[in-house]
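A favour between colleagues. Tell me how you read the following sequence-structure pair.

===
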Amino acid sequence: MSGFVLADENWLTINVTGVPKKIEKNIFAHLGTLPDNDVQRRAFLFTVDDNTHDALESMGYYHAILDIDVKENDKGPWELSLNITPGEPVIIQWVDINFQGDMLQDNTFSLWLNSLKIKPGDTLNHGVYDSIKSQLITLALARGYFDGQYTKSEININRDLNTAQINLLFNSGKRYLFGDVHFEGSTLNDDIVESLIPFDADAPYATQLLTEFNRNLLNTGYFSNIKVLPQLDKIDTGVVPINVQLSPRPSHLIGVGLGADIGNSTENSVDPRVRVTWRTPQINRYGHNQETSAEWSPERPKILTTYTIPLTHPLDDQLKIKLGILRDTYGVTQDYDAEKRQFNNTGQLESRKYLVGLTRQRRSKSNWLHGYSVESIREFYNQLDTDFDPRFYLLGYNLTKTVRGDNSLDPKSGYRQTYSLEYADPSLGSTIRLVHLQARFKWVDTLFDKHRFVARMDLAANIVDKNDIDNIPPSLRYFAGGDQSIRGYSYQELGPYIDYINSEGGLSRQVVGGRYLAIGSVEYQYYLTPTWRVATFVDAGNAFDTQQFEPVVSVGGGVHWISPIGPIRMDLGFGLKETETVARSYRFHLTMGTDL
């Protein structure tokens, strides 16, 4: 194997033969920067022998034979040739690592020892040895052993036997403790920010807990700038005080989101969506905050306000008050043309909903988010030429757990599982008795850095007397289609339908949604660069009733840009099946947001 390097000014070329690529690379690193004048070239050549042997010995080759040849050209660069016979490497005979001090009671160091890859029989590598020493010091500092030091660190090499013995003895001394936490810049009550501290007073020091503390402060949304600083220069009697510097976020934040569906489905060919979100991160010193979102799209304007009150913990225990007015469209309405013997689209099932809700969300130590809710909804819609306006008082319970492999906007791995149950009863003022069930799953994983997989599944059911089905409002029924459902079809256009005689005596058909939902999706994504990827997917399933299940499949692909504000996805889906209400369609979806 050989290597060839040319200086920018053509003063010297180097050719290395006789060693593997990794050793050759190490030799070039030891030789250093190539010369750019005659004086530097002669100085460079003077140290070639020593630097090359140092490079070989650092990787365990103490008996290498080096043949150096320099060709001094009158014109052009001089040529340096290094022909190397590396010989037999030095083999590690044993590795002896011992601890002293308080670290003996800290299981973290035992786990670190078990993770080490170095073992007897390996070729000696001084870089690996130095890395192990550095790792141990770094871990000790991260665990609060600020007085830790090596009392022995040596490699004994027997050149005759080509063996090496590694001996390390580290004395950690005592472990320091967390001291008082002092906050600067916060306008919240002390009990709110103090509840975010993930450690008790006088707890053993660990940078991992400081990282969690910083993340808690960030996740509240109250602060624009956060610094959690251990004051190592003020350590007193083994206690480390913590200084927290905070800057409140602006009083009001405005966000704008854009999206669009384009295609040849039952809806218009272009379905734009605009969302404006107004946030007040901190309303008062008790940590109250509000978020109001107004969404516009043809036929589907919505406005929803959520007022949040922290209870026992600003992140893990919250009371949310919701007020909303939402207009939505579902499925398709069609009239039969007797001359052409076909159904023609005439509109959609439209609904107008008024919502008042109260929810308490609590997060458990195992990261499950429990939600207990009471919602009052009144919904107005016309189905089969009949007006409906049922009222519901829903008692709900929601259970969610999200695990991310990292905290980025585009996590490489993770999963989310969500389960929800809502119950309405006439004795509590609801129009009918209803049990509303949903389960959603999403899984993300990345293999070999570039191959990302996303899978999801949605299952749902309404348990209700069959005579009361018409009184289930459309927002509580199940429809399929859209960028979060079955791509290739428009938003909520798929589901069971009913044929009926309209008010003019003609035959009409209306998609009214189903009591059940089953949808699955698998997507493969390949990273072209760290910020661009391509994707291909298969979506399948549908909303259905007991006696009317018509599964559909869509396939497609897209291009995703991992922008600084989150992934922006441009997906094109093709429906593979022509249903009774939807012809074979395609849809282009432009969306933004994280997968988890």
About this structure: The radius of gyration is 34 Å.
